[in-house]
Amino acid sequence: MLLAAVGEGWCFLLNGLSYIAVITGLLLMKLPAHEKQMHPPTLSDTVEGFRFIRRSPPIRDLLLLVGLVSFAGMSYSVLMPIFADSILHGGPKGLGLLMASAGFGSLCGALSIASRSSTRGLGRVVALGA
Prior knowledge:
The protein has 130 residues and is mainly alpha-helical. The chain has helices at 2-6, 8-28, 42-55, 57-87, 91-114, 122-129.
């Protein structure tokens, strides 16, 4: 919505300035020194993670769904500026409104899933949402 209101230049500037707060927060952190801990090799951790995913059908199915949607939907965000400009002739304002509507839909979906009292039927809701 901000992109539609003020244009892309100001949005890039505001995005860059927002990183200053994050970097300042990271620099102000005081972490206690800790002893070096022995960790198992990274490969064995990775293998154990894949075993857990294989044994947990809901986790496996969600990860496969996220992978599929990410793979198939990657062109969505890449092509959105071209679609907004060349097809809808909306320019930066059109792009801002399209991206805002996608964000609003995501927010509504996240809030509706978070408001559920149980996980019964959640798999169907997630699959239909994807």
